[in-house]
Every structure is written in structure tokens, then in C-alpha cells.
Here is the input.
Amino acid sequence: MSLSESLKSVTSGARSVSRLGEALGNQSRSVRWSFGAICVLALYLLPWWPNVPVLGWIVETPGTSFPSVLTDQVVIFVLVALGLNVVVGLAGLLDLGYVGFYAVGAYTVAILSSQHANLPWLVCMPIAVLVSMLAGVILGTPTLRLRGDYLAIVTLGFGEIIRITANNMHWLGDSRGISNIATPPSIGPLKFGVLDAKPYFFLGLTIILIVIFLLRRLENSRVGRSWNAIREDEDAAELMGVDTFKFKLWAFAIGAAIGGLAGSLYAGKVQFINPSNFPLQLSILFLAAVVLGGAGNMWGAIVGGALVAWMPERFRGFADKRVFVFGVALVLVMVFRPQGLIPRKIRKERWLESWKPSTGTALRDKE
Amino acid sequence: MSDNLLELDHVTMQFGGVTALDDVTFAIRRGEILGLIGPNGAGKTTCFNVMTGVYAATSGAVLFDGASLAGLKRFQITKRGIARTFQNIRLFPDMTAIENVMVGADANHHTSVGGALLGLPRHHREEAEGRNTAMELLTFMGIADRAGDAARNLPYGYQRRLEIARALATKPQLLCLDEPAAGFTPAEKVELMDLIRKIRDQGYTVLLIEHDMSLVMGVTDRIVVLDFGKVIATGSPSEVQDNPAVVAAYLGVPDDDA
Here is the structure.
């Protein structure tokens, strides 16, 4: 089987997944809920997937512990892709410095739990989220007046500023970085240490599920609608009464908060960070994850994030050619499915079928 | 309360050396359909853009409901009660017809991130209200049968009507239509003009830019004629029709007069 053929099978696989989603959407609420529950259970069992025949051969990561790949790479990338998807996929703002917020989150935890204080991880994490959000607002307030390419360049600079600042400030541990970062507290049998990566995975997955739940609420509201309108036509949106600046800033702040959340999780896992953990390349990979999965579709971003994190580890057998294989795989997916593996969908207005005209109030309200 | 809903008071708009609007003064009265006509490049759309805040006038003032619109952001002007459509259709192409109209309806809503995350009652109330408004307006415009389709998949005539529905959803006092019948067949144009009359009868004031003279004559109460950025005539359709300056602007001046 040639590479392009296998790629075609990947994209057709993605197509059947989205068709499955559509078929499920037409099922009753209870069917959908039980399907969702089974999926969630299967996800919590992910660390044991390599032990399953066939499936195990597909997902295994030769040479690296699979649970470590899940916690150090997959969970982080999925979370980051979810956050970046709000900025790039929903609001249509090209952010090339997303790693900056990720770094702010990680460094906040590092400073507060090791470098300058001894706070527990559980206290540092929400502070890290708030600080990253603040960083998003500080960066967004002057720059969100820019559009397109200009915004991309400014955000690119932001990511570098954060890394270079960390590299040169003694207060931030300069190039040596910060060690002894606090881990999440152990709960019963879940011991957060260096031996077992699984507890981190369970924590990360739980956080991801909560983020999905909250983002869905935003997407299905005035906020999500405004983001979509801004992405589609910013001028028209503003002339239809959308406070474009406010909603763009919200997209930036929420994206930054999720990026910071991922950073705090990362810092709590590796317990040692230095500036070289946050290179520009990471921003590009984050963006690749969103675009590969399907910008504007939350499920696409999740799939993209997981693939971009997992694929290089899966191809470790190719030794020094693995990054090349990974690159070729990305290019081929983009050639055969430029809209992403699970592209943005036209919204299904399910309530339309049951809609009944009520008393006319839309017209003549302003007399 | 003054009779005039919107007043342009000696408005001049210059782009570099080009004067697009030159000392333009006219008023739109409450409840009327005012036609804004003129040859290509006369400044009609610029006039729209100044009123809706897309451009800030070089000099002069725009008064809406007696208050100046200077310094307001575009979305604030919309919330004050001026809504518009575009000469080149500018819908949100990947959103459904319903969603397009709901974006307009959101101009009157207040739910933000907090309310949506917590699922506050106001969020649910506003969503329901938005859906009802959207469906009623789509029904009123006669395009409810394609309510769940993406805007970009709608036929041309539907897209033009959807723009009007979206503008109406903001609950404006003044509805500005920029060549809403462009590209329509004569029969479709007549239908649309009936609709515009119906919109006026619902209590809206309408400003209409249109090329087709016969159409404008049929539907408007008063007409303002622009030529080279200047108001050359104002009056009822029949007055304007007989005005020699208007005839000259549209048909050109015979050589022996020049």
C-alpha cells in the first residue's frame, strides 16, 4: 500500500467518523448519552490500550512508555489545541505565539511552588490560569486592533518575548530553568510522582472533559455566534451590532487561560522547566494540530492535537527520519483534506422541526 | 420629538483630494421611505457609510434622533437604531440563515461569557427570543423554508432578503437598504418593493438607494438626488422627475447647452 493510499484511508476514516457523529445526532437522548459514557470510559482506559490486540499494535509507541506519551504529549496538545481553536478556529484570529501563554502558565506554577514560594500545585494552578488570562488581555488590548497577517506577526513576537525574558531574567531562573516544581496532591491510590504517569493522565483527561463542557456552552451562545460572525466578516459583524473588540478580547483571554492551564499541568508533571521547553516551533505545532484536525471544530482540534502529539512517538522506529515522516504525513493530510480531518460543520438547527410561530413580536417592537 | 429621524448637516467627506460628499444636507422624516438616487459614483454609498459610522465625516454632523453620532463606534450606532444592508451581499456565509438573523437579534441581548458559562436564565431567555425573532423575520421575508441552510447555499434572491431580515433583527428605527434589488428581475423587483412598503407600514423608516428610476418613483415618499457628491434636488418623486438638473445628471446635457 503506497503512502498516499494509506493517507486516503486515514481521511476516509475521518469522514466515516464524522458520519457516525451525524448518525448519532439523530438518535434519542439516552442512546447518545450511553454512547458518550462508553467513549469516556474507553478514554480513561487509554493507558492500557497497547495491551489490546490489533488496537495495541496501532497505538503503541515503541521505545517510549505509552502512558508517558499520553501525559507529557497528548493531554497537553489536546488541551492546547482546544484553547487555540477558540482563537483561530472560532474567532478567526491567527495567533503564532500561543506557546507564550503556555509558558506563562508553566512559569507561574514554577515560581509560586518552587522558585519564590512554596504553594501547593492546587493553589498555583488557578493562579496560573488567571495570570495567563491576564497576559492574553494585556497582549490583546493593543494588538487586536490589527488584523490578519499583522496580528500574526505581533503574536509571534509575543511568544519570543516570553521565552527570551525567561532566558535572561535571574528572577525567572534564567537559562538554567526552575526545578522542584510541586506536583498535584495525591488522592488515595492516585500518587502523583515520577514513577507512574497514569494519575497525571486521569487528571488531564478530567480537565479536558470539563473544558469541553464549558466551551460547548460558549459555542452555543451569543458569544460563540459573535465569534463566528467575526470570523466570517468582521465589518459586517460590527455593523450588525457585535462589539467585535470585546468578543475578540474574550476569545484571546479564554484561549490564553486554557493555554496557561495546559502549561500548569505540564509543569506539575515534569517538575522542571527551562526556556528551551517553549520554543517557537511549539507554537507552530500547536497551530498545525488545530489546522490538521479542522479549525473551528472542537472535535477536530482534539483529534489534531492527539495526532500531532502521538505521531512522532509512533514513528520513533524510523529513528532520525521520524520527523521527516511526520512532516510528510502532515503535508499529505493537508493535500487530501485541506479543511482538516473533522472540518467545521454547518450548524444543525434541530429545534426548527418543532418550532411553532408564537405571537408576532419581532416587528414593531420599537415604536 | 422632531419630525426628522436623521439629519445630515453640511456633511463633507474627502478621501485625499477626492471630495465624495460636498456639503450634503438633507433629513429623513420618521415613517417615510426616502429614496437616495444618483448616477454611478455620485456618493450614495459613501453617504450610507458616513451615517453608519464606517467613515467619520471630514466636516459636518450626522444627527440621529436629535443626537450627534460623532465618536460612536459602529456597533453602538447600530444599537442606537440604524441598520443597513450592503450593496455587495455581506452575509456570514458559513452560518445558517437563522444564525445570521440571530447575530442581528443579539444586538439587543446582553449575555456574555459569564452568563453563557453558567447557563443563566437570561441566556436561555435571550436564545429563545432570538430564535423566535429570527423565524418571524424569515417568515415575513418569505424565506423561512430555507432557514436551516448555510447562507452561502441560498439562492441570490434569498441572500438579498436574508440581509434585510438580519438588519431588521437589530430592531432599528431606520433601515438603510443599499441597492436591495440589484440583480433582480423586474418581477422580483416589484415584489421586493411591496415588501419594503410593508416594512414601512410596520413602523420603520426606510432609506433606499436604488438605481432603477421607475422603481424608486413607485415606492418612495420623497427623493434626494446626489450628483458628484452634491445634493442637486430634493422633493416628491414627481417633482424630482421633472427637475431639469436631475434629467441632465442622468441623461447628460445636450451639446448646444454646454
